[in-house]
Amino acid sequence: MTQVFVIHGYTASPEENWFPWMQQQANQAGASLKVLRLDPTETPSLVVWEQQIDEQIESIDQHTIFIAHSLGCIATLHYLSRVLQKQTIRQLVLVAGFNGRLGRLEQVNPFIDAAKIDFELLKRQIEQRVVIYSEGDDRVAAHFSLEQAKSLDADVIPAQHQGHFIDSEGCTELPEVWQAIAKNLVLKAK
């Protein structure tokens, strides 16, 4: 059975943005989806997030899917670069992702700088890689996400939503993510 893990972004929580909607979609489909709860402070630490991710993910296998948003993409790529040395996973979906400093939000630069990401390993060990971006994202400009897609040799999906995929900008559903993972879900027998 597929286990889906969702890694939220900067100052977020599982109760915000499009994460409750994703949980509802998964519940209706009979899929196992868990939105991790990470430290929401304005000065996040990659070490703290890594520890929290380790505590909330018991195991992964070849059917596992990861979904990440914004700063959560950096944390996820860092985590997967460490744990996929001998393990493959089915899919990675990155929403409003980026590879390095954005030139804004200086308080997250130490988090970004600490990340160790092995793109070659990730391309080998993740069967399908998808990047979803918005032309209207004023926090992570489209070119940052497209650069990330190139680094991962990922499929690229432009989103209908024109923003940073957060509820304060009206994004409480994200069908592009659900559509990207739906065909890869292995559900438990009823």
Please describe what this structure looks like.
There is one protein chain. By secondary structure, this protein is of the alpha/beta class. The chain has one domain: Alpha/Beta hydrolase fold, catalytic domain (Rossmann fold). Helices cover 35% and strands 17% of the residues. It is built from 7 helices and 6 strands, in the order βαβαβαβααβαβα. A 6-stranded parallel β-sheet has the order 2-1-3-4-5-6, sandwiched between helices. Helix 6 links the parallel strand 5 and strand 6. The termini are close together. 44% of the residues are buried. The mean pLDDT is 96.
List keywords for this structure.
190 residues, alpha/beta, Rossmann fold, 6-stranded parallel beta sheet, 35% helix
Short description:
This protein has 190 residues and is an alpha/beta fold. The protein contains seven helices and six strands.
**Which sequence of SSEs, written as H and E, runs from N to C?**
EHEHEHEHHEHEH
pLDDT below 50 for ≥5 consecutive residues: which ranges? Answer: none
CATH superfamily: Alpha/Beta hydrolase fold, catalytic domain
Helix content class: 25-40%
Q: What characterizes the major β-sheet?
A: 6 strands, parallel
Structure class: alpha/beta
Report the CATH C-level class.
Alpha Beta
Query: Which geometry do the CA atoms define?
Result: globular
Q: Name the strands of the widest sheet in spatial order.
A: 2-1-3-4-5-6
Count of beta strands:
6
Average predicted local confidence, pLDDT? 96
**CATH topology value:** Rossmann fold
Number of domains: 1
What share of the residues does DSSP label as strand, in percent? 15-25%
CA radius of gyration is: 15 Å
What is the count of helical runs? 7
Distance between the termini: 12 Å
CATH-level-2 architecture: 3-Layer(aba) Sandwich
